[in-house]
Amino acid sequence: MLRIALVGYGKMGKAIEQEALSRNHVISRIIDLANQHDILTLSPANTDVVIEFTQPGSFPENLRKVMESGVPLVTGTTGWYDQLAQVQKIVNESGGGLMYSSNFSIGVNILFKLNQYLAEMMNRFDQYDCFVEERHHRHKADAPSGTAYSLSRQILAGLDRKTRVAGEDLRHRKPEADELSVGYVRSGEIIGEHTVGYTSDIDTITISHTAHSRRGFALGAVVAAEWMVGKTGVYEFSSII
Protein backbone atom coordinates (compact mmCIF):
# COMPACT_ATOMS: atom_id res chain seq x y z
CA MET A 1 0.00 0.00 0.00
CA LEU A 2 1.34 3.40 -1.02
CA ARG A 3 0.39 6.89 0.08
CA ILE A 4 -0.04 8.76 -3.20
CA ALA A 5 -0.54 12.51 -3.54
CA LEU A 6 -2.30 13.84 -6.63
CA VAL A 7 -1.27 17.22 -8.02
CA GLY A 8 -3.92 18.15 -10.57
CA TYR A 9 -7.45 16.86 -10.15
CA GLY A 10 -9.01 17.09 -13.57
CA LYS A 11 -10.28 14.13 -15.56
CA MET A 12 -6.91 12.41 -15.46
CA GLY A 13 -6.45 13.04 -11.74
CA LYS A 14 -9.84 11.51 -10.98
CA ALA A 15 -9.09 8.50 -13.20
CA ILE A 16 -5.74 7.99 -11.44
CA GLU A 17 -7.46 8.18 -8.07
CA GLN A 18 -9.81 5.34 -9.03
CA GLU A 19 -6.97 3.15 -10.32
CA ALA A 20 -4.87 3.82 -7.22
CA LEU A 21 -7.73 2.93 -4.87
CA SER A 22 -8.47 -0.22 -6.86
CA ARG A 23 -4.86 -1.31 -6.21
CA ASN A 24 -5.31 -0.73 -2.46
CA HIS A 25 -3.31 2.50 -2.28
CA VAL A 26 -4.24 5.55 -0.21
CA ILE A 27 -4.63 9.10 -1.55
CA SER A 28 -2.69 11.24 0.93
CA ARG A 29 -3.33 14.62 -0.71
CA ILE A 30 -5.41 16.02 -3.56
CA ILE A 31 -3.88 19.32 -4.67
CA ASP A 32 -5.53 21.49 -7.29
CA LEU A 33 -5.90 25.20 -8.08
CA ALA A 34 -8.09 25.87 -5.04
CA ASN A 35 -5.48 24.56 -2.58
CA GLN A 36 -2.24 24.68 -4.55
CA HIS A 37 -0.25 25.86 -1.52
CA ASP A 38 -0.85 22.46 0.08
CA ILE A 39 1.97 21.17 -2.12
CA LEU A 40 4.27 22.68 0.53
CA THR A 41 2.93 20.18 3.10
CA LEU A 42 4.24 17.16 1.20
CA SER A 43 6.92 15.11 2.94
CA PRO A 44 8.05 11.47 3.28
CA ALA A 45 6.17 11.44 6.59
CA ASN A 46 2.81 11.66 4.82
CA THR A 47 3.42 10.69 1.16
CA ASP A 48 5.40 8.00 -0.66
CA VAL A 49 5.05 9.34 -4.21
CA VAL A 50 3.41 12.21 -6.10
CA ILE A 51 1.56 11.90 -9.40
CA GLU A 52 1.26 15.20 -11.27
CA PHE A 53 -0.94 15.92 -14.31
CA THR A 54 -1.26 19.69 -14.72
CA GLN A 55 -0.32 22.30 -17.34
CA PRO A 56 3.06 22.97 -19.00
CA GLY A 57 3.37 26.35 -17.30
CA SER A 58 2.75 24.87 -13.85
CA PHE A 59 5.15 21.95 -14.11
CA PRO A 60 8.51 23.68 -13.39
CA GLU A 61 7.34 25.14 -10.09
CA ASN A 62 5.55 21.92 -9.11
CA LEU A 63 8.76 20.03 -9.84
CA ARG A 64 10.87 22.29 -7.63
CA LYS A 65 8.45 22.08 -4.72
CA VAL A 66 8.07 18.31 -4.90
CA MET A 67 11.84 17.82 -5.16
CA GLU A 68 12.28 20.02 -2.08
CA SER A 69 9.80 17.80 -0.23
CA GLY A 70 11.97 14.69 -0.68
CA VAL A 71 9.16 12.72 -2.33
CA PRO A 72 9.59 11.14 -5.81
CA LEU A 73 7.45 12.50 -8.63
CA VAL A 74 5.66 10.91 -11.57
CA THR A 75 4.48 13.45 -14.16
CA GLY A 76 2.28 13.10 -17.19
CA THR A 77 2.38 16.82 -17.95
CA THR A 78 3.82 17.53 -21.40
CA GLY A 79 4.89 20.64 -23.28
CA TRP A 80 8.09 21.20 -21.24
CA TYR A 81 10.52 18.81 -22.95
CA ASP A 82 12.60 21.66 -24.36
CA GLN A 83 13.61 22.22 -20.71
CA LEU A 84 14.63 18.60 -20.10
CA ALA A 85 18.30 19.39 -19.36
CA GLN A 86 17.29 21.92 -16.70
CA VAL A 87 14.75 19.50 -15.22
CA GLN A 88 17.42 16.78 -14.96
CA LYS A 89 19.72 19.24 -13.21
CA ILE A 90 17.04 20.16 -10.64
CA VAL A 91 16.26 16.52 -9.90
CA ASN A 92 19.88 15.43 -9.64
CA GLU A 93 20.94 18.37 -7.47
CA SER A 94 18.05 17.69 -5.08
CA GLY A 95 18.81 13.97 -4.90
CA GLY A 96 15.23 13.32 -5.88
CA GLY A 97 13.46 11.05 -8.32
CA LEU A 98 11.37 11.82 -11.39
CA MET A 99 9.59 9.66 -13.93
CA TYR A 100 8.08 11.36 -16.95
CA SER A 101 6.35 10.20 -20.08
CA SER A 102 4.47 11.76 -22.94
CA ASN A 103 2.05 8.84 -22.54
CA PHE A 104 1.66 6.27 -19.76
CA SER A 105 -0.45 3.92 -21.87
CA ILE A 106 1.17 0.51 -22.28
CA GLY A 107 -0.32 0.36 -25.79
CA VAL A 108 1.29 3.65 -26.76
CA ASN A 109 4.64 2.48 -25.43
CA ILE A 110 4.31 -0.59 -27.64
CA LEU A 111 3.60 1.85 -30.50
CA PHE A 112 6.85 3.64 -29.60
CA LYS A 113 8.79 0.39 -30.00
CA LEU A 114 7.11 -0.34 -33.34
CA ASN A 115 7.81 3.21 -34.48
CA GLN A 116 11.53 2.92 -33.74
CA TYR A 117 11.77 -0.41 -35.56
CA LEU A 118 9.78 0.85 -38.55
CA ALA A 119 11.92 3.99 -38.92
CA GLU A 120 15.09 1.90 -39.00
CA MET A 121 13.55 -0.43 -41.57
CA MET A 122 12.20 2.40 -43.78
CA ASN A 123 15.60 4.11 -43.78
CA ARG A 124 16.45 1.82 -46.72
CA PHE A 125 13.42 2.85 -48.79
CA ASP A 126 13.76 6.51 -49.63
CA GLN A 127 10.75 6.50 -51.98
CA TYR A 128 8.58 6.81 -48.85
CA ASP A 129 7.91 10.13 -47.18
CA CYS A 130 6.91 10.15 -43.51
CA PHE A 131 4.38 12.00 -41.38
CA VAL A 132 2.94 12.02 -37.85
CA GLU A 133 -0.64 12.97 -37.02
CA GLU A 134 -2.43 13.22 -33.68
CA ARG A 135 -5.95 14.06 -32.52
CA HIS A 136 -7.10 15.11 -29.05
CA HIS A 137 -9.98 16.77 -27.21
CA ARG A 138 -10.42 20.52 -27.45
CA HIS A 139 -9.32 21.06 -23.81
CA LYS A 140 -5.72 19.97 -24.38
CA ALA A 141 -3.31 22.83 -23.70
CA ASP A 142 -0.36 21.91 -25.94
CA ALA A 143 0.02 21.00 -29.61
CA PRO A 144 1.43 18.87 -31.04
CA SER A 145 1.03 16.42 -28.18
CA GLY A 146 3.92 15.12 -26.13
CA THR A 147 3.29 11.69 -27.62
CA ALA A 148 3.60 13.11 -31.14
CA TYR A 149 6.82 14.78 -30.02
CA SER A 150 8.16 11.42 -28.82
CA LEU A 151 7.16 9.69 -32.06
CA SER A 152 8.84 12.46 -34.05
CA ARG A 153 12.03 12.25 -32.00
CA GLN A 154 12.18 8.50 -32.61
CA ILE A 155 11.70 8.96 -36.36
CA LEU A 156 14.43 11.61 -36.57
CA ALA A 157 16.78 9.23 -34.75
CA GLY A 158 16.13 6.35 -37.13
CA LEU A 159 15.34 7.93 -40.50
CA ASP A 160 18.38 9.66 -42.01
CA ARG A 161 16.40 11.64 -44.59
CA LYS A 162 14.45 13.49 -41.88
CA THR A 163 16.50 15.86 -39.71
CA ARG A 164 13.94 18.24 -38.17
CA VAL A 165 10.25 18.81 -37.50
CA ALA A 166 8.52 21.36 -39.72
CA GLY A 167 7.52 24.49 -37.84
CA GLU A 168 4.28 26.48 -37.73
CA ASP A 169 5.39 28.48 -40.77
CA LEU A 170 4.56 25.40 -42.84
CA ARG A 171 1.12 27.01 -43.18
CA HIS A 172 2.66 29.47 -45.63
CA ARG A 173 5.18 27.36 -47.53
CA LYS A 174 5.87 23.86 -48.77
CA PRO A 175 7.99 21.56 -46.57
CA GLU A 176 11.63 20.88 -47.26
CA ALA A 177 12.57 17.29 -48.05
CA ASP A 178 14.32 16.79 -44.71
CA GLU A 179 11.41 18.13 -42.63
CA LEU A 180 9.00 15.82 -40.82
CA SER A 181 5.40 17.02 -40.98
CA VAL A 182 3.51 16.69 -37.69
CA GLY A 183 -0.21 17.41 -37.87
CA TYR A 184 -2.76 17.80 -35.09
CA VAL A 185 -6.51 18.15 -34.53
CA ARG A 186 -8.29 19.51 -31.45
CA SER A 187 -11.99 18.68 -31.39
CA GLY A 188 -14.74 17.51 -29.07
CA GLU A 189 -13.79 14.89 -26.51
CA ILE A 190 -11.33 12.76 -28.50
CA ILE A 191 -9.30 10.84 -25.90
CA GLY A 192 -6.20 10.42 -28.05
CA GLU A 193 -5.26 9.13 -31.48
CA HIS A 194 -1.75 8.90 -32.94
CA THR A 195 -0.72 7.77 -36.41
CA VAL A 196 2.65 7.41 -38.12
CA GLY A 197 2.52 7.03 -41.90
CA TYR A 198 4.93 6.33 -44.74
CA THR A 199 3.56 7.23 -48.14
CA SER A 200 4.84 6.75 -51.69
CA ASP A 201 3.42 6.99 -55.20
CA ILE A 202 2.44 3.33 -54.90
CA ASP A 203 1.12 2.80 -51.37
CA THR A 204 0.93 3.94 -47.76
CA ILE A 205 2.01 2.14 -44.59
CA THR A 206 0.60 3.25 -41.22
CA ILE A 207 0.85 2.30 -37.58
CA SER A 208 -1.51 3.87 -35.07
CA HIS A 209 -2.95 3.81 -31.57
CA THR A 210 -6.42 4.90 -30.47
CA ALA A 211 -7.30 5.32 -26.80
CA HIS A 212 -10.87 4.39 -25.89
CA SER A 213 -10.72 5.75 -22.34
CA ARG A 214 -8.34 7.41 -19.89
CA ARG A 215 -8.07 4.24 -17.82
CA GLY A 216 -4.98 3.00 -19.69
CA PHE A 217 -3.12 6.25 -18.98
CA ALA A 218 -4.23 6.23 -15.33
CA LEU A 219 -3.19 2.62 -14.74
CA GLY A 220 0.22 3.26 -16.29
CA ALA A 221 0.75 6.29 -14.05
CA VAL A 222 -0.03 4.23 -10.93
CA VAL A 223 2.29 1.43 -12.08
CA ALA A 224 4.99 4.09 -12.59
CA ALA A 225 4.36 5.43 -9.08
CA GLU A 226 4.75 1.94 -7.61
CA TRP A 227 8.07 1.56 -9.44
CA MET A 228 9.44 4.95 -8.42
CA VAL A 229 9.24 4.52 -4.65
CA GLY A 230 12.73 4.72 -3.17
CA LYS A 231 14.42 5.60 -6.48
CA THR A 232 16.46 8.65 -7.40
CA GLY A 233 17.33 10.06 -10.82
CA VAL A 234 15.32 10.75 -13.96
CA TYR A 235 13.51 7.99 -15.85
CA GLU A 236 11.16 7.62 -18.79
CA PHE A 237 8.20 5.27 -18.41
CA SER A 238 9.37 3.28 -21.44
CA SER A 239 12.35 2.10 -19.37
CA ILE A 240 10.09 -0.13 -17.23
CA ILE A 241 7.91 -1.53 -20.04
Average pLDDT figure: 95
**Helical region count?**
6
Regions with pLDDT < 50 over 5+ consecutive residues? none
H-E string: EHEEHEHEHEHEEEEHE
Shape: elongated
Q: Could you tell me the number of beta strands? A: 11
Give me a quick take on this structure.
Helices cover 32% and strands 24% of the residues.
Question: What keywords describe this structure?
Answer:
about 30% helix, six-stranded parallel β-sheet, elongated
Q: If you had to describe this structure to a student in words, what would you say it looks like?
A:
With 241 residues, the protein is α/β, with parallel strands linked by helices. The protein has six helices and eleven strands. Helix 1 crosses helix 6, helix 2 (59-69) runs parallel beside helix 3 (84-94) and helix 4 (106-122) runs parallel beside helix 5. The protein is elongated and about 60 Å long.
Describe the secondary structure blueprint for this structure.
Elements: E1 3-7, H1 11-22, E2 26-31, E3 49-52, H2 59-69, E4 73-75, H3 84-94, E5 97-100, H4 106-122, E6 129-136, H5 146-158, E7 164-165, E8 179-186, E9 193-199, E10 204-210, H6 215-228, E11 233-236
Helix pairs in contact: 1-6, 2-3, 4-5
